Amino acid sequence: MTRTVPPEADWDDAPTLLDGAMNLALTAEQCNLAYWLAAVAQGTLRGRAETGHAPTAITPEHMRRPGPLRDALVMELGYRSIAEEKATRILAHYVAQAPGVPELEFYTTQLVDEARHAMVFRNHLIELGLPEDGLVAAIAEMSADYTKEILEPVEEFANHTVRDEGDFIGGVAIFTIVIEGVLAPAAELSERKWQMLDPAASEIARGASIDEIRHLTVGSSILRDHLAAHPGYRPRLLDILRKGRQLWDDLPEEAYIMRRETLFQEGMAQYADLVGDYEVWPGRRLLDTTPAERYATAERWTDEMAAVRLRYMGLADALPVLGLAE
């Protein structure tokens, strides 16, 4: 029997986000529109298109009860839905500026991926008991400060580079290294930490992570090939990465994450019997972790993944620019 879904897009066989992003090599030519229609729409998303999770992955009743655990997930999904919506709008400029058909088709599929992520995050808020009527406005209200302080500066940075300066490759670097390269490990942590407490939320995160593997690896191959063909672009790229690093250093993202993780910690303690001895990573029980430890671990994953991807792209000289060990 001929396999129609490649392993990196197969729900059961796809690697974790960290493993896939650090070890797979995919190109825009491979991940074209036909690939997406067959491997993603008819593969990854089979039976999960509307909600992001299988019908058997239920939302437990305790996740609908008011309290810190529900508040933590509402905050996480609310913020992520707004972030994915902004990503969708930013990517419209990437499609418009794409230099060739492979890039145009790939970023069209990534645009759809990000719009789907925003949709399934919103839909799970409804499964948690938030009213569907007025949900978009409610999310915007709860995320107003996060949007202003975190998302809008990042959005402006990407739009200025791609839309205003017409620098498609610079935009690829911003999305691949600065935006998704920083946020992806947090998505990996989300999949792991909700597994015992909300299987539906964990599956939603899993589906998004499978997409992010593709986004990170294809973006990396575009940058690698461009640098090989146009070595004179390297100073410009390093300058973009330097500005991107400074941008993240200036943003108060840690405060928002720690607020969410503190709520999660309080809620997890209330349902310790459900978590049991589950290990969030090998040798470490989720119950024994702290908000600071989980944040630090995601940061370490970010650095490890970035170092591997930068070397793959031929950008080892960018490691010190991003504050990473050479």
Total of helices = 12
Q: Give the overall average pLDDT.
A: 94
**Can you tell me the CATH topology?**
Ribonucleotide Reductase, subunit A
Q: Which CATH architecture would you pick?
A: Orthogonal Bundle
The secondary-structure class comes to mainly alpha
Order of helices and strands: HHHHHHHHHHHEEH
Task: State Rg.
Answer: 19 Å
Q: Would you count the extended β strands for me?
A: 2
- The CATH superfamily label reads Ribonucleotide Reductase, subunit A
Top CATH class: Mainly Alpha
Tell me the domain tally. 1
Q: For the terminal residues, how far apart are their CA atoms? A: 46 Å
Spans of at least 5 consecutive residues whose pLDDT stays below 50 are: none
> What is the molecular shape?
globular
Roughly what percent helix?
55-70%
Oligomeric state of the chains in view? single chain
Biggest β-sheet: strands ordered side by side in the sheet:
1-2
**How many strands, which pairing sense, and closed or not: the largest β-sheet?**
2 strands, antiparallel
